[in-house]
Amino acid sequence: MIAVRVELREITDANRKAVRALRVRRDQRRFVASVAESLKDAAAEPEARPWARAVYLDEEPVGFVMLSWNAPNSPPDERYFLWRLLVDRRHQRRGIGREVLTTISDLVRAEGGDVLLTSYEPGPGDPGPFYRRFGFEPTGEIDDDGEIVLRLRL
């Protein structure tokens, strides 16, 4: 795998259409919401302090990431939550997802966070192994949607 360097950029009027066009593979759709759906979820839950960014490789949008960023009404260990991570189907298996996780882990740590949470829906082809390879560990919790909750200590 070739080392990649991604950049996280704000979603603006200039890039919104291209970012919304990003898609996962057909077999991944049950595990990853679209960018449009993610942005709707963010607008519906401002109290979660959604932080959404386009993932760029050079000048091309190749993915999307959204976190609940230092949500003030959450317990300290739950203030940073990786809500969505999407790498476009044309750019998968190149190390982009791993680089995004490294980048957001560094950003959360720089903000004083020491834990990053995420969750996933279990099933054939789920992203659980990807997260565990990165260092996330199951908390033993299952959320209200039946998703397995994972924790990464930073």
Automatic annotation (TrEMBL):
Residue stretches making up the N-acetyltransferase domain: 6-154
UniProt keyword annotations, A-Z: Acyltransferase, Transferase
Family annotation (InterPro entries): Acyl_CoA_acyltransferase, Bact_Acetyltransf, GNAT_dom, Sper_AcTfrase_N
Keyword Acyltransferase set for record: yes
One GO molecular-function entry: acyltransferase activity, transferring groups other than amino-acyl groups
Gene3D superfamilies per record: 3.40.630.30, The crystal structure of the spermine/spermidine acetyltransferase from enterococcus faecali
Protein name: N-acetyltransferase
